[in-house]
Structures are given as structure tokens and as C-alpha cells.
Design goal:
18 helices; binds NADPH dihydro-nicotinamide-adenine-dinucleotide phosphate; Rossmann fold; 5-stranded mixed sheet; binds (2Z)-2-iminopentanedioic acid; alpha/beta
């Protein structure tokens, strides 16, 4: 391996040795950009990789709140402002008990590359809390969000840092966060958060954007290999925001979704899952996926991983490291042809390598799920204009962005003789842009 790359990898490991997810994300990028590093010896002199792998700022804070029983609970809040190189810090907030510094940093790091691929002026960030929204009342969610924002507000702003949703943070949470921000600032700064409801400054199609964008990317990737979604059997992990709208678009493109999951298990419906029913269970009732079988007795529920179901296309849309090498082997032996990463880093490194070795197409997260943040940037732009596009206008812009992202991945993969390897393509295309911008801006 290139000596400079190797030194940076060793340094990163030493500095972050108890952050496995962060190291995994950095290692995946660094090992795939070797040909670019070989061609640019000047990067070493400017410590370009050392700077790129070190967040500009990590903010950790206390989030005290009172539950419905009157007990005081203390959670930890995070905001990793990873890079402001090409725009204000931008990225979601995750509320999940597993949240820790390693997960926040891996997500922030990935976000820089993803945001660069969108072609829009957004830097990279991630934040969140180890708060568990499951089973909490609306009032508890509101009190938590208000406390979280009472600290976060001083670090964000529409030209500084613009959070949005992620796991456990959807329209309800963004509403409470926005209300508290506005109250503290005594100003309507619409562009400070994205994923807002339409009635107070959100963008049409933002809710659908990540899932739809994933399927636009998948369509382009399959087209490039003389294939299509028509008649394909699809399985999806997760049943949240990304999963639901990926499923909806998959149907619209002629595929059939036979299985979806949550962290407890999956539902299998041979005739095709009724998405409106899943939407109702998850978005309206905030229930569990197994409730689906109450109204659909032909469907089955199993407490196991969805990857054991035979599929042409698998869409991991839940969380990181969801598809292990063992799952990858099962999927390949069942004839899978493509993986679409709706979630961030849903495949382990070994799983991704196994897919590529077995000629399974992989739509990498940084590229394939970038439609969400791209539409967030379109929301920011509408907030600045004080004017709103209709649904079709936003959807068309999203589609165009995804087509363009696929082209960038394809071109970069071909330029460095990795035809069809869009994982390497995405990393290189994003890195080239970031490295140029970093070089032009001097040592900062
Ligand atoms: P949601 O909270 O809406 O849904 C998350 C889904 O994933 C739920 O079904 C949840 O099940 C499942 N899940 C979460 N954690 C785990 C876990 N540890 N093990 C198994 N299942 C789990 O989140 P989103 O749909 O917004 O996000 C899903 C993924 O997509 C994340 O990786 C996120 O980072 C990524 N992403 C999201 C974007 C967005 O715009 N929202 C944009 C780009 C990427 P359960 O209810 O049981 O917890
Ligand atoms: O991972 C992601 O790209 C998101 N959760 C969306 C971030 C955003 O700012 O819309």
C-alpha cells in the first residue's frame, strides 16, 4: 500500500482506537483512493488526509429532561461538525440508545463525501443522542427535544450548521426542535433545520427523497448493466422513513417487495407487501412491523434477519453493519444481483468485498442514499428564496441529482479501471472534489 496512506491509517487507528465504526468508515475510504494518492504526492506535504480524517469540531453536551413520572433523566447530546469545506455543516440527528462518539464520527465522515457527490453547497456533520424515543409519550419527546435544542442552538444556524432527521428523528422531532430554536432566537430562520413539515417551511418530497433517490440510483445502475427493476423481487431491512419510500418507488418501477423488517423481526408476504398498511402502522400508529400480520393473515412474521429470504435486489435501509459476511453469502447463494444501500454503511467491509467478488452490483450508501440530504439542500434553497417548488419540481431535481451522482461514480470507476465497482467510484469521485477544494483553501 502507498506509504503515506498506510501512515495515515496507522495514525488514525492510534488516535481513535476505541472507535470501531469510525475506523471502519475511514479505512474503507482510504483503501479505495490509493490511485489518486499515488498521483498526488503534494497531498502528503499538506497533510491533506490527516486533516480530512479529523473533525473540525466535536461537541458533546448534557441533555437533562423530566419524564412523565417526574423523574430526571440525563442523556448525552452530540454534534460532530466534520467539515465546512464546501458549505455549512450539514447532516442528520440520530436518537437511538446505541449512539456514541464512534457512530457519530463515522456518520459525520461519510456525510462529507456524500454531500460532495450531490454537487450542492453543503459541508458534513452528524449529531444526535443516546436518547431512546421508543415508548415515550409525545410530551416526553417534546421535553427532550426542547432540552436538546437549548444547548444545540448556539452551535447551529442556517449559514453555520443545518441538522435534519435520521434514525429516531422524523417530522415530529424536527417540529419540536424548530419550535424551541425559533423561540430562543426570536427569529424565523427557516433554513436552520431541514425535514420540516410543509406547513411551516418544509419542502415537498423531502420525506420521500432518500427512498426515491435510492431507487433512481438503482435504476441507473441496473440500466448500465442492461437490466431493470421490472419484475424483480425486493427485500428491505427496516420499515422507517427510508425503507417505506424505497418500497413505494420500487413498486412504481415494476418490482415487488416481499419482505420488510424492524429490529425485532421481519414480515414476509409472497404476494407483495401492502406499503400503505406498513405506512399506517409505522408513521401513524408508531407500532411494530409484526402488527402487519393482524390485517394480512397470508403474511408471515419471523424473529430473524430478513436476508434469509430469496431476493433479486436487497435494500438495507435500517442501520450500520446490518449485512455481515454470513448474510452476504446467503444472499449470493440465493441469486441476488444488486444491493442498494439506503442506510449508512449497512454492509460490513467483508460483505461488500464478497458481493463485488461475486459480481453483485453494490449501490454504495454515500451515493445511493444522498437523495435525502440533496433534497434537504433544496429545502434550504427554498427557505432562502422564500418560495416553494411543487412536488414534481422537487422530485425532478432529485432524480436529476441521482442520475448525475451515478454518472460520477461510473466515470470515476472507469477512470481507475474498476469498472462496475461503484463503491470505489463513489469514494474517488467525492475525494477528488474534496481534495481540490482543500488544496485551494490552504492549510485550515
Ligand atoms: P427511521 O428511524 O425512520 O427507521 C429506522 C428503521 O431501521 C426502523 O425500522 C428501525 O427498527 C430499524 N433499525 C434501527 N436501528 C436498528 C438496529 N440497531 N437494528 C435493526 N434495525 C434497526 O430511520 P431512517 O429510515 O431515517 O434511517 C434508516 C437508515 O437510513 C439509517 O442508517 C440512516 O442513517 C440512513 N439514512 C437516512 C436518511 C434520511 O433522510 N432519513 C438519509 C440517508 C441515510 P426499530 O423501529 O425496531 O428500531
Ligand atoms: O444520513 C443522511 O444523509 C441523513 N440522515 C440526511 C441528512 C440531511 O441533512 O438531510
Amino acid at each position: 500500500m502507498n506509504k503515506y496512506l498506510n501512515n495515515v491509517l496507522e495514525r488514525t487507528k492510534k488516535l481513535n482506537n476505541n472507535e470501531p465504526e469510525f475506523l471502519q468508515a475511514v479505512e474503507e475510504v482510504l483503501t479505495s483512493i490509493e490511485p489518486v494518492i499515488d498521483a498526488h504526492s503534494e497531498y502528503e506535504n499538506s497533510a491533506l488526509l490527516e486533516r480530512m480524517t479529523e473533525p473540525e469540531r466535536c461537541i458533546l453536551f448534557r441533555v437533562p429532561w423530566v419524564n412523565d413520572k417526574g423523574e430526571v433523566i440525563v442523556n448525552r447530546g452530540y454534534r460532530i461538525q466534520f467539515s465546512s469545506l464546501i458549505g455549512p455543516y450539514k447532516g442528520g440527528l440520530r436518537f437511538h440508545p446505541s449512539v456514541n462518539l464512534s457512530i457519530m464520527k463515522f456518520l459525520g465522515f461519510e456525510q462529507i463525501f456524500k454531500n460532495a457527490l450531490t454537487g450542492l453547497p453543503i459541508g458534513g456533520a452528524k449529531g444526535g443522542s443516546d436518547f431512546d424515543p421508543k415508548g415515550k409519550s409525545d410530551n416526553e419527546i417534546m421535553r427532550f427535544c426542547q432540552s436538546f435544542m437549548t444547548e444545540l442552538y448556539r452551535h447551529i444556524g442556517q449559514d453555520v450548521d443545518v441538522p435534519a432527521g435520521d434514525i429516531g428523528v422524523g417530522g415530529r422531532e424536527i417540529g419540536y426542535l424548530f419550535g424551541q430554536y425559533k423561540r430562543i432566537r426570536n427569529a424565523y430562520e427557516g433554513g436552520v433545520l431541514t425535514g420540516k413539515d410543509i406547513c411551516y417551511g418544509g419542502s415537498l418530497a423531502r420525506k420521500e427523497a432518500t427512498g426515491y433517490g435510492l431507487m433512481y440510483f438503482m435504476r441507473e445502475m441496473l440500466n448500465a448493466h442492461n437490466n431493470s427493476l421490472n419484475g424483480k423481487i425486493v427485500t428491505i431491512s427496516g420499515s422507517g422513513n427510508v425503507a417505506i419510500y424505497a418500497a413505494q418507488k420500487a413498486y412504481a418501477m415494476g418490482a415487488k417487495v416481499v419482505a420488510m423488517s424492524d429490529s425485532n423481526g421481519y414480515i414476509y408476504d409472497e404476494n407483495g407487501i401492502d406499503i400503505e398498511s406498513v405506512k399506517n402502522i409505522k408513521e401513524v400508529q408508531r407500532g411494530r412491523i409484526k402488527e402487519y400480520i393482524n390485517k394480512h393473515p397470508q403474511a408471515q412474521y419471523k424473529e430473524s434477519k430478513v436476508w434469509e429470504i430469496k431476493a433479486d435486489i436487497a435494500l438495507p435501509c435500517a442501520t450500520q453493519n446490518d449485512i455481515t459476511l454470513e448474510d452476504a453469502k446467503k444472499l449470493v447463494s440465493n441469486g441476488v444481483i444488486a444491493i442498494g444501500e439506503g442506510a449508512n454503511m449497512p454492509c460490513t467491509y467483508e460483505a461488500t468485498q464478497y458481493f463485488i467478488k461475486n459480481n453483485v452490483l453494490v449501490a454504495p450508501a454515500k451515493a445511493a442514499n444522498a437523495g435525502g440530504v440533496a433534497t434537504s439542500a433544496i429545502e434550504m434553497s427554498q427557505n432562502s428564496m422564500r418560495y416553494y417548488y411543487n412536488f414534481e419540481e422537487v422530485d425532478q431535481k432529485l432524480e436529476q441529482i441521482m442520475v448525475n451522482i451515478f454518472k460520477q461514480c461510473k466515470n470515476a470507476s472507469e477512470k481507475y479501471n474498476h469498472n462496475g465497482n461503484y463503491v470505489i467510484g463513489a469514494n474517488i469521485a467525492a475525494f477528488e472534489k474534496l481534495a481540490s477544494a482543500m488544496t485551494m483553501q490552504g492549510i485550515v
